[in-house]
# Entry
Amino acid sequence: MLNTYTAKYIKIRSGYMGQLVEWSEVITEGKTLEECREMLQDALREMIIAYRQQKKEILEHQNKFL
# Structure
């Protein structure tokens, strides 16, 4: 299942900060916008893995990426 999230990006001194609108705990930084996008996708994958390992419920809007 492949769905999309809405990401917001903010220009910061060290590059860019990215965060998912639907899952605000998924947040990261990158030197370039492209790097930030890639890191945000990785952060989402890692968050889903962590939730599953901790047997936490992943809400429908949180489980759109995998």
Q: What stands out?
A: The chain has one helix and three strands. Residues 7-54 form one domain. The mean pLDDT is 87.
